């Protein structure tokens, strides 16, 4: 094909793209105007004494699921869902901007999880500790909070589990985030003379084998977050940090080595906490806390109702109870919604055997 023909073909494609962009712009604007109408209807209900609910987790989950089911490519389901999430986030901001607290500081994986779930058009506030996120939500200072609950390599985040024992909070959603760790250095770092590597304790553990192989004699310093690790490196010449893409971008660091996590499928699960119950979507999970009597066979009695009802139990953790020495509570996640007849039966049977059963919430399964 001659250069002249190639240029003509490219010109025709650009014209087509421009026309498609105009259609996309028009459709997004139409959607935004619909969002404004929704806000008007809901505010009218407020004037009549009803409390409007602007953010509906079950509705967003259903929209994203439908988008992925109808996606024919070439963009991946994950990328298409991300684009629609941002459109929904911006439209929701026209109705009523959400306030979201997350475990900070800026640049953490928890912030990345918050953006993945809510999009960028929310008012997000970093908190110094997990318990502070719970307190902000409980006080009504924010609409929702985002906290880590478990990692596929290192297991449960105990601070989050313990916070559920201290606060009455509803789980409204979950986010699963693939975690990629990078070895980051600053402009002044002497890469051949690194004597200290900063990171969060869990991140150091998730990269243990790689560090043993490449930096066996370098001091590993656990700090409060990966973002804090990245921040420290900016002012030092002999240190490096293990952190993710957001921290690297935020603090202007260079990736000396990429994806150094020991397991390529390394993922962290985050929970969305709030004060509103979420209706069923047909593809839900439920989380409960169960206190059992301290006697032989207690765990067996706890598991029997799940087995006999054919319910998929996805996670079980134990934590020391606040009610007595050497007594424990069980944190359990399972498939189904607490309003489903089968799950109602399960909870009734658990209540007959347990000292106490507390439903933390039913919520849509993570979309991706």
UniProtKB/TrEMBL annotation:
<dbReference type="InterPro" id="IPR036979">
    <property type="entry name" value="CM_dom_sf"/>
</dbReference>
<dbReference type="InterPro" id="IPR045865">
    <property type="entry name" value="ACT-like_dom_sf"/>
</dbReference>
<dbReference type="GO" id="GO:0046417">
    <property type="term" value="P:chorismate metabolic process"/>
</dbReference>
<dbReference type="InterPro" id="IPR008242">
    <property type="entry name" value="Chor_mutase/pphenate_deHydtase"/>
</dbReference>
<feature type="coiled-coil region">
    <location>
        <begin position="3"/>
        <end position="30"/>
    </location>
</feature>
<keyword id="KW-0028">Amino-acid biosynthesis</keyword>
<feature type="domain" description="Chorismate mutase">
    <location>
        <begin position="4"/>
        <end position="99"/>
    </location>
</feature>
<dbReference type="Pfam" id="PF01817">
    <property type="entry name" value="CM_2"/>
</dbReference>
<dbReference type="InterPro" id="IPR010957">
    <property type="entry name" value="G/b/e-P-prot_chorismate_mutase"/>
</dbReference>
<dbReference type="InterPro" id="IPR002912">
    <property type="entry name" value="ACT_dom"/>
</dbReference>
<dbReference type="Pfam" id="PF00800">
    <property type="entry name" value="PDT"/>
</dbReference>
<protein>
    <recommendedName>
        <fullName>Bifunctional chorismate mutase/prephenate dehydratase</fullName>
        <ecNumber>4.2.1.51</ecNumber>
        <ecNumber>5.4.99.5</ecNumber>
    </recommendedName>
</protein>
<dbReference type="InterPro" id="IPR001086">
    <property type="entry name" value="Preph_deHydtase"/>
</dbReference>
<keyword id="KW-0584">Phenylalanine biosynthesis</keyword>
<keyword id="KW-0456">Lyase</keyword>
<dbReference type="GO" id="GO:0004664">
    <property type="term" value="F:prephenate dehydratase activity"/>
</dbReference>
<feature type="domain" description="Prephenate dehydratase">
    <location>
        <begin position="99"/>
        <end position="275"/>
    </location>
</feature>
<dbReference type="GO" id="GO:0004106">
    <property type="term" value="F:chorismate mutase activity"/>
</dbReference>
<feature type="domain" description="ACT">
    <location>
        <begin position="287"/>
        <end position="364"/>
    </location>
</feature>
<comment type="function">
    <text>Catalyzes the Claisen rearrangement of chorismate to prephenate and the decarboxylation/dehydration of prephenate to phenylpyruvate.</text>
</comment>
<keyword id="KW-0511">Multifunctional enzyme</keyword>
<keyword id="KW-0413">Isomerase</keyword>
<comment type="pathway">
    <text>Amino-acid biosynthesis; L-phenylalanine biosynthesis; phenylpyruvate from prephenate: step 1/1.</text>
</comment>
<dbReference type="InterPro" id="IPR002701">
    <property type="entry name" value="CM_II_prokaryot"/>
</dbReference>
<keyword id="KW-0175">Coiled coil</keyword>
<dbReference type="Pfam" id="PF01842">
    <property type="entry name" value="ACT"/>
</dbReference>
<keyword id="KW-0057">Aromatic amino acid biosynthesis</keyword>
<dbReference type="InterPro" id="IPR018528">
    <property type="entry name" value="Preph_deHydtase_CS"/>
</dbReference>
<dbReference type="GO" id="GO:0005737">
    <property type="term" value="C:cytoplasm"/>
</dbReference>
<comment type="pathway">
    <text>Metabolic intermediate biosynthesis; prephenate biosynthesis; prephenate from chorismate: step 1/1.</text>
</comment>
<dbReference type="GO" id="GO:0009094">
    <property type="term" value="P:L-phenylalanine biosynthetic process"/>
</dbReference>
<keyword id="KW-0963">Cytoplasm</keyword>
<feature type="site" description="Essential for prephenate dehydratase activity">
    <location>
        <position position="268"/>
    </location>
</feature>
<dbReference type="InterPro" id="IPR036263">
    <property type="entry name" value="Chorismate_II_sf"/>
</dbReference>
């Amino acid at each position: 094909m001659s250069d002249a023909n190639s240029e003509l073909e490219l010109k025709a494609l650009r014209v087509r793209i421009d026309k498609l962009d105009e259609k996309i712009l028009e459709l997004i604007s139409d959607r935004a105007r619909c969002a404004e109408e929704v806000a008007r209807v809901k505010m009218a209900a407020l004037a009549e004494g009803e409390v409007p609910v602007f953010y509906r987790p079950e509705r967003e989950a259903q929209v994203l699921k439908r988008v992925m089911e109808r996606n024919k490519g070439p963009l991946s389901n994950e990328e298409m869902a991300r684009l629609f999430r941002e459109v929904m986030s911006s439209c929701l901001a026209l109705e009523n901007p959400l306030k979201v607290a997350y475990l900070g500081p800026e640049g953490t994986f928890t912030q990345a999880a918050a953006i993945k779930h809510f999009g960028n058009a929310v008012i997000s506030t970093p908190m110094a500790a997990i318990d502070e996120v719970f307190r902000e939500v409980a006080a009504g200072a924010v609409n929702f909070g985002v906290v880590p609950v478990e990692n596929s390599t290192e297991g449960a985040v105990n601070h989050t589990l313990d916070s559920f024992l201290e606060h009455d909070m509803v789980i409204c959603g979950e986010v699963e985030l693939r975690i990629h760790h990078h070895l980051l250095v600053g402009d002044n770092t002497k890469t051949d003379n690194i004597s200290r590597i900063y990171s969060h304790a869990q991140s150091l553990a998730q990269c243990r084998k790689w560090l043993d192989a490449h930096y066996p004699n370098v001091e590993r310093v656990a700090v409060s977050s990966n973002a804090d690790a990245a921040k420290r490196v900016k002012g030092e010449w002999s240190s490096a940090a293990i952190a993710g893409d957001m921290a690297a971008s935020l603090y202007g660091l260079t990736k000396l080595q990429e994806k150094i996590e020991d397991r390529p499928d390394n993922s962290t699960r985050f929970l969305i906490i709030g004060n509103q119950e979420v209706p069923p979507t047909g593809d839900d999970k439920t989380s409960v806390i169960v206190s059992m009597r301290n006697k032989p066979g207690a765990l067996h009695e706890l598991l029997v109702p799940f087995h006999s009802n054919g319910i998929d139990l996805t996670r079980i953790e134990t934590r020391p109870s606040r009610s007595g020495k050497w007594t424990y509570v069980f944190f359990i996640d399972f498939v189904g919604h607490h309003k489903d007849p089968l799950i109602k039966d399960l909870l009734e049977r658990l209540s007959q055997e347990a000292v106490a059963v507390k439903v933390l919430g039913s919520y849509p399964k993570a979309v991706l």
